[in-house]
Write a structure and sequence with these properties.
The protein has two helices and six strands. β4 and β5 (115-118) form a beta hairpin. The protein is 24% helix and 18% strand. Residues 1-27 form the signal peptide.
């Protein structure tokens, strides 16, 4: 390789490195996700639907909750969340506009401070980041 092309090659390599680093640091986690959320889809709490944010505030405040089953043990029978002993997870209804009953949306909390959101009745979850 001639000396004349070295600056171009070096420039191209630096550009590729910059693109690679920028691509690795992007995402909606605002930084590195906590260990319990790694490998999962995530959502920032302020990006949840308004009804989910309202439910999250109720959880933080300890209630009151509008649905009888709010705060009940979540069994994790679908095995979409990490396996834990029974009683580790609790579920809370997120009102779904247009639904007469509880609808498909839930927040599930873990005893270790984890929060998960589902809008498809436990078929999938996103880790909620604060």
């Amino acid at each position: 390789m001639s000396v004349r092309f070295m600056p171009r090659v070096l420039g191209a390599l630096l550009f590729c490195l910059a693109v690679l680093v920028a691509g690795c640091s992007s995402g909606d986690t605002g930084g590195e996700a906590p260990a319990w959320a790694r490998g999962m889809d995530t959502v920032q709490a302020d990006r949840l639907p308004a009804e989910a944010r309202r439910t999250l505030r109720r959880i933080d405040d300890g209630g009151p909750f509008p649905y009888e089953k709010d705060g009940a043990v979540f069994g994790n029978f679908e095995r979409e969340l990490p396996r834990e002993k029974r009683g580790y997870y609790r579920e809370y209804t997120v009102r779904t506009p247009g639904e007469r009953g509880r609808g498909p949306r839930r927040l599930v909390t873990g005893s270790g401070g984890e929060i998960y959101y589902t809008d498809d009745h436990y078929a999938s979850f996103k880790a909620v980041l604060r």
